[in-house]
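Quick one:
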Amino acid sequence: MKKITLSILFCLVAPFAFAGHHLNGTWSLNVSLGGQQGGTATIELIEGEDGALSGKYSGALGSESLMGTVKGNEVEFSFDSQAGKIAYKGTVSGNKMEGTCDYGQLGDGTFEGSKAE
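Output:
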């Protein structure tokens, strides 16, 4: 009976124990801003206990601190740059991330990429 109880408890607790901090690390994102331009952004993310994100953007707009949130597989983060406020909104599946982005004066676009191993 003890083994069954422990097995059930593990099945209930394990998903929560392993769910946190899945975004921590460096992400390489390919950004496309319509027919105009695009490039690669490197995003370093640190996920807090409460779903808050902090980190750093590096790319065509320089190097900037970013802030955001993660809830389940939905992620949002933004930073200020010389082109205005830059915002990303997307979904994460394993080590892949994709979604839309608003690059201020440079326009709207899409992004997709993966987490460095």
